Structures are given as C-alpha cells and as structure tokens.
Amino acid sequence: MTPSETRREEIVRLATTAGTANVEDLAIHFRVTASTIRRDLAALNAQGKLARTYGGALGLVAHPEASLRERMGEAYEEKRAIARWAAARVQPGESLLLDAGSTVAAVAHELRSARDLRVATVGLTVLQELADAKGIQVECLGGRLRRLSQSFLGSLTEAALERMTFDRVFLSADAVTPGNGICEADLEQTRLKELMARRAEKIYVLAHGAKLGKSPFHAWARLPLPWNLVTDNSASEDIVDAFVAEGVTVVVVDGLSA
C-alpha cells in the first residue's frame, strides 16, 4: 500500500470516529500540506467514502455508496413500473430534464420511441439509452464526470442549467425523507438537484419504496413545493402519509405490474 493510500484509509477512520474532519487539522495530523489533504478528500469523495463540504470540512458518509452498476439490478421490477408511469406523463413537444440514476435511465429507455421531445441530461446511462432515438433532441449537460454515479456535475453543469428551462424534471435519489428531501452522498449532487428542480415547471422524484424514510448520508436537497414523489406499493402507508402531510403529491404504482 502506498503512503497516500495509507493516509486516505486513516482519514476515513478519523472521520468515521469524529463525524467530520477539518482540512487544516488533517494537514497538521499527517504533516502534509493542505493541498495534499484536499486531493485526498477529492479522491475519497469520488470513491463515495466521504462527503465533502464547501469550505474544507467533510462529513462522513454513513454507509458506503453503491456504484450505479451495482444499483442497476436492485428493485428491478419496481423501478421499471415507476419508469413506465413517468414516461406515460410525457407529451409530444415537451422539454425534459433527466437526472442520472438507474430509475431515470429506465425512464429514458421507455421514451426511446417518443417523437418531438427535447431531453437534456447529466447522466451517461440516459445518453446511452437515447443516443439513437431519432425523435428526440438530446442535450448533454457537460461538467466533471463523477464516475461512481456515472453523472456530470460541477460549475460547468450548473452554468448550462441556468440558461435553460424545462416542462418536467425527473430526479433520482439515494434516499428521500419527509422534512429533509433528497439524500445523497455528496453535497455537489444535492446542490445540482436543487438547481434542476428550480429550472422545471413540474418536479418528479423517482424512488422505490426501500429508499423512503432512510438517511444513509449527510447531504440533502430541499425541493420547492409542489413536487411529486413516485414510488411503488412496497412503501409503507405511514411514510406515504408523512410526505402527503407536507404537501408532496405521492403516486404509488404497482411494482409487480412491470
């Protein structure tokens, strides 16, 4: 193991113990420069082991973040049912914004035969689904590639979004809770999701039942009401009622109907 790998493992251990860690404190602890620590944090963030904050602090990721490849096979039928419902809302002539994520990629798959659509996306899997869809104008919102989630994010992505509006946005989520909104492993992801929501007339969060009411990470995106949560019938009645009480419109699809 290289010195940098050893140091990064220790950084994860320290952050796990304390909950957060400061760049300057880490630099003193390891007797390296702050720039070296920032590179370590960037690498650990990309691996889903830590969630960085603006200003140099980092919040610990409570659970390892699964890669998009690992998530593709989870709750397959539920995601497919949610995707079919979502795709059925889309009308010819609309402009759509599609997030990254396995469920949103399933929406893109359902839209492949659509006509007269404009679709912008930050997701590589969405691009792959729609690359040869002749009836859809596809726009890629460039930026920095986050390999773990196969998505683009950062200042370039945000700058492009500020100049665009959409009829509908379909957002993914690592988890969703009443009160806090969308939970993600990375603060840049939550910032981007909030911006995406502000640029669309109708907001849909696509999350199968196992993702509701969970807090696996410490970064959150708060969405402006009204917005729609589309889930499946494995979601508990209590958690659905909690979202409804907040003013969220909840759609429950039959996860076995896919």
Overall 3D geometry? globular
Q: Number of folding domains?
A: 2
CATH topology of the largest domain: Rossmann fold
Supply the number of helical segments: 10
Amount of helix: 25-40%
Instruction: Please state roughly what percent of the residues sit in beta strands, choosing from under 5%, 5-15%, 15-25%, 25-35%, 35-45% or over 45%.
Output: 15-25%
Low-confidence stretches: 54-58
The counted number of beta strands is 15
Give a description of the structure:
- The protein has 258 residues and is α/β, with parallel strands linked by helices.
- The chain has 2 domains: 3-60, Winged helix-like DNA-binding domain superfamily/Winged helix DNA-binding domain (Arc Repressor Mutant, subunit A); 69-253, Rossmann fold.
- It contains 10 helices and 15 strands.
- The protein has helices at residues 3-18, 23-30, 34-46, 68-71, 76-89, 102-110, 124-130, 155-161, 187-198, 237-245; strands spanning 20-21, 50-52, 58-60, 95-98, 117-121, 136-140, 144-146, 151-153, 166-171, 175-177, 181-184, 200-206, 219-221, 228-232, 249-253.
- Strands 6-5-4-9-12-14-15 form a 7-stranded parallel beta sheet, sandwiched between helices.
- Helix 7 links the parallel strand 5 (117-121) and strand 6 (136-140).
- Helix 2 crosses helix 3 (34-46).
- The longest helix has 16 residues, at 3-18.
- The protein starts with a helix and ends in a 5-residue tail after the last strand.
- Mean pLDDT is 87; it is low at 54-58.
